[in-house]
Structure formats: C-alpha cells, structure tokens
Design a protein that fits this description.
single chain; about 240 residues; alpha/beta; Rossmann fold; 7-stranded parallel beta sheet; 11 helices; about 15% strand; binds zinc ion
C-alpha cells in the first residue's frame, strides 16, 4: 500500500469502530472496585511519570499530558479516603548519560526538578507517608527497577489501577507488564486503565520536521494504544470516580 488515501479508505471502518468504542467507554465507581476486591489492601494505584518533566517543564512537557494531573490527584484522594494504601509512583530518574537520550531529548535526570512528582500530588498530605517511589531509567518501569520485587512482596494485590503518561509508551508498557506477568503465572488479577487519567503528547509532522524530531500524532496514538491494551485484557474505562 503506497497511497495515503488508500490507507485511510481501507482503515476507515476500523477507525470508526475505534471512535465508537472510545465514546462508549463507561466510568466505574472506585468504591465498587474496592468492594469487589474485598479489602482495600488488594488494590494498588500505580502512577507512572506524573512528574514535572512531562507535565510542567522541560523539553518533553506537554499541555495534553498536564491535563491528566487533576483527575489523578482526585483519584489519589478518593483511593486514600476508601482505605487504599498501596500507591506506587514510577518515575523517570535518568542517568545524566542515559542511552534513552539517543531517542528522546535529555529529560528528567535523577535529582532534577523534572524528575520530581508534580506539586499537585506532592501537596497531598498523605503523599510522603504512603507513596512508594520507584525510579526508572527506561520507558519500561519493570526493567532494572524495584517494581517486580514490590509485586512479589505484595501477592495480596489483585486490582491494579494504572494512570499517567504516555499512553503509548510507559503506560502501555506498565499495564502490559502487569497483565502479562499475571497471565504467565495464571494469576487472576484486574488491570484497569481510566482513559481520562492517561494521555500522550502531540508532535505534528510539520513541527517535528523543523527540529529533526520524530512526529507523533497524540490523538491517534492515544486511541490506538488504549484499544491495544483492551485487546490484551486490560480493562479500559472512561474514568474511575
Ligand atoms: Zn525517559
């Protein structure tokens, strides 16, 4: 296939399906999730890269991604109020010479302001008390990090709520890791992604060509990766309220 019109024409039914699927997603109540889990101890809220470097400042910060901060803060508050105490905060804390900087501009070096949680989350009175921080040096939060040790130490957790950014990069890899790790062990767990609390950045082709960066269609990739998670047994919901 060489012609973009042909590609669009061919994919139109699927894209229409995707849009309808996204529009028909329903919200779920956090209280129902906690009740279904029998105990709040069986629920973990996993937030990935909800840090300044993607939300507020630096070369990879974007307004689109900043839009997820408010729903994530609300979810932290509601979860805490319902007795959830497993809050896992996975975040870029790169080596100054990170190999990843061959793919993305230098960002979120460990110890920097970019690498720190957004102030909206830091301001939560319980944040420093209950949140487990897990630094990472790649887009895969499960490689070379303390994540799997934490999962091994908390077999009681059966419901994982995944929020953060970017939908098609770290969120996707984290949710897929949790899903496939459980599948491989034949463990029944739920991995749930609220669509209003994940997003990705947008870099149009023209803007990208001016800087030599690779373009990235935020709207299309967000949608396709949400669907791809659903395809793999991750529960994608409109919101967790
Ligand atoms: Zn990074």
């Amino acid at each position: 296939m060489r012609d973009v019109e042909e590609l669009i024409q061919r994919s139109k039914p699927f894209l229409s399906y995707l849009l309808r699927w996204r529009q028909n997603l329903q919200p779920v109540a956090l209280s129902a999730l906690v009740q279904d889990s029998q105990s709040p101890d069986q629920v973990a809220l996993m937030a990935v890269d909800v840090i300044n470097g993607f939300c507020h400042t630096g070369p990879l910060a974007s307004l689109r991604v900043a839009g997820i901060v408010a729903p994530i803060v609300l979810l932290f508050q509601n979860a805490y109020a319902l007795g959830v105490r497993h809050f896992i905060f996975l975040h870029d804390a790169h080596d100054p010479q990170a190999v990843e900087f061959d793919s993305y501009p230098a960002h979120c070096v460990r110890g920097s302001e970019e690498s720190a949680p957004v102030p909206e989350l830091k301001a939560l009175p319980f944040f420093d008390k209950v949140v487990t921080m897990i630094p990472k040096n790649s887009v895969n939060a499960a490689v070379g990090t303390a994540l799997n040790d934490w999962l091994d130490a908390h077999p009681e957790v059966r419901t994982f709520i995944v929020v953060g950014d970017c939908t098609d990069i770290c969120v996707y890899m984290l949710a897929m890791h949790l899903r496939t790790r459980a599948n491989a062990a034949n463990r029944t767990v739920r991995v749930i992604v609220p669509a209003n609390a994940v997003d990705t950045y947008d870099l149009p082709v023209e803007a990208a060509s001016q800087t030599g960066a690779l373009p990235h269609d935020g709207e299309l990739l967000h949608l396709i990766f949400l669907y791809h998670m659903r395809l793999n047994g991750i529960e994608v919901v409109a919101a967790i309220e």
